[in-house]
Amino acid sequence: MATTQMQAQGPMGTLMLTSLGGFVVTLGVALAMLMSGGHASFNTSSDGVNWGLPVVAYVFLSMTSTGLALVAALATTFGQKEYYAITKRCTWLSIATLVGGFTSLALEMGHPFRMLWAIPMNMQIVSPLFWMGVFYLIALVLLVLKFQKMNAGDWDSPGSRMIGNLSVVAEILALGMLGAAFGMMAMRPAWYGSTVPLSFLLGGVTAGAAFAVLATHLAHGTDQDGMPEKVRSLLQGGLAKLFTGATALYLAYIGFHTLSGLWTNADGLQVMDRIVATPWFWVGIIGLVVALFIMLSPAQRSNGAMQSVASLLVLVAVFAGRYDYIIGGQLVPMFKGTWVQGLVDYAPSLTEWMVTGVGIFLTLALFALGERALNLGASPKK
Amino acid sequence: MTKWAMVIDLDKCTGCQACSTACQMENNRLPGENYQDVLYYTEGTFPNTQLKWFPRPCMQCEEPSCMHVCPTKATFKSEDGVVLIDWNKCIGCKYCMIACPYGVRFYTDEKALIEPNIKQVFKGSGDLSWNPPYKGPQQDATRGVGIQPNGVVSKCTFCYHKISMAPKGVADLDESIPELKEFVPACVRTCAPKARYFGDLDNPNSYVNKLIQDKSGVRLLDHTGNKPQVYYLSGGGAGGSTVPSGRQTVNKA
């Protein structure tokens, strides 16, 4: 299929400058702190929270990557041709979020380079992290190949379709394994559950749809009247419905998850009282409710700026939700006696915020660079 | 095949922390890196409260969840049943710390528990995260013995540098037998009320097997399925040491 070229009209120049600047600053500060103090500059500890904010950022970005791959697959795998208008952008963003997530994780680990040989050389196939790594690596390679095909104008040849289909399967399996890495931990009741991978997928679709809406507005500007018809109708039609539906389901999930945690007396779930008392939790809840209100109101929904606000609120809410889940699951100490009185106290350190910033700014910088150099608004002519 | 195990008689344990101190000295632990610890906690609500304590080494589980989750097989079971870490393979992902139900694993690079930071006083180099002047001669990174490098997780090894040198086929490592005392784990050897016993679970003639059978030895959080190789004996007397049923933290009212 031939390709329609589409130049970005949104504030991509500003985004590129901001994100590149943010990336350089956060990376510089994070590396300086890590080189001078190592991971002691984190507020994580053996007696308390082992996985801190950078892991939350990794999980958030990985979830978003899978969600974006699924949005892209609506056209390439499921035949919803109207989504071709954002398929190339979503595929690129799926790659960018994955790279951003991996970067956050690498800065959080003790020996990230050792991982490159130690995992494949030792084949610990019963570890969920092993399979998560395998599937994310496969997904990344396939997404790059798929993007390369689309960039060359090959949107739906059998080979291109096959690569696209396999990349979606790999992304789903990868995020499922990431969810399982938490859900399998019976010793941490606030995490445990066989349906955790499904909740990760739901969060992924929600964040992916939100990021797709936000990125499209960043690329084309919030004035929907000035947009190409295909993009405008998608933002008013299918994508808006997907975004709204996913947000509603995600809000329901968070609500029921919180209620069941508050209701039960089981050991380990007492942390839910702490979670609902934090501003993080209410930032998420209020963000989801406001976003739903915007998207369910025809007058607000048709306004590009309001759609952008709604998508940003949902992204923040999904991030907050992952923070509550991942950090909350570690707040009940594991046999620490009087070393830890009551629940663990944790607030991310400056270094942890910087590492998180590295992942997010890198994602945004890659998005802006892609928009500038790779014509992410392109779609098939037919 | 040998399967080393520890038995701790809670009716004898006085909570003196000599075991913890001996472990710290033997294994060059930093403050807070308590491979062996005696945990204190209170039970009940004011004014009806009791101070309790609970000696807690690594449980050296038969089915260690820490080992199964390790993506690089850095955590492994030795042939004689001890859970060890190969620091040359550890990537510092900390998943093993997440997966351990007993909280007995420690990451190297953390804020110092007390000042001055002893790691800054005795700075390490190469593969040593710190370099105390009094460190022991043992150093085996492939089994997680000695002083760990930066960026890895460490844990109790049952003093593997000692027990792995014991004569083959011995049923128990008892500090009261002169020719065996050098092979006894530091916490067992130093226990003043002799509350700790160390022996081979796979040897039907071992004293640890007899104690577990005669005194109905129990394991901590047995429902997790990790099958610890540390057994506790408790007559349920009025002493302050009992096997906790949970993690002993804040529960809902």
Provide a quick synopsis of the model.
The complex is a heterodimer of chains A (382) and B (253). With 382 residues, chain A is mostly helical. Chain A has 14 helices and 2 strands.
Mean pLDDT of chain B: 91
Tell me the series of helices and strands of chain B, N- to C-terminal. Answer: EHEEHEEHEHEHHEHE
User: Alpha-carbon distance between the termini of chain B?
Assistant: 48 Å
Structural class based on helices, strands and sheet pairing of chain B: alpha+beta
Strand content of chain A: under 5%
Shape of chain A: globular
User: Can you list the strand order of the major beta sheet of chain A?
Assistant: 1-2
Would you tell me the overall average pLDDT of chain A? 93
H/E element order of chain A: EHHHHHHHHHHHHHHE
**Largest sheet descriptor of chain A:** 2 strands, antiparallel
Main sheet: strands, sense, barrel of chain B? 3 strands, mixed
Q: What is the 3D shape of chain B?
A: globular
Helix coverage percent of chain B: 10-25%
Tell how many strands the DSSP assignment of chain B holds: 9
Annotation field: number of helices of chain A: 14
Description:
The complex is a heterodimer of chains A (382) and B (253). Chain A is mainly α. Helices cover 71% and strands 1% of the residues of chain A. Chain A contains 14 helices and 2 strands. A two-stranded antiparallel sheet of chain A has the order 1-2. Chain A is globular and about 65 Å long. Chain B has a 3-stranded mixed beta sheet. In chain B, 16% of the residues lie in helices and 18% in strands. Chain B is built from 7 helices and 9 strands; from the N terminus they run βαββαββαβαβααβαβ. The N and C termini of chain B lie far apart (48 Å). By secondary structure, chain B is of the alpha+beta class. In chain B, a hairpin with a 5-residue loop joins strand 4 and strand 5. The mean pLDDT of chain B is 91. At the A-B interface, helix 4 and helix 5 of A face strand 2, strand 3, helix 2, helix 3 and strand 6 of B.
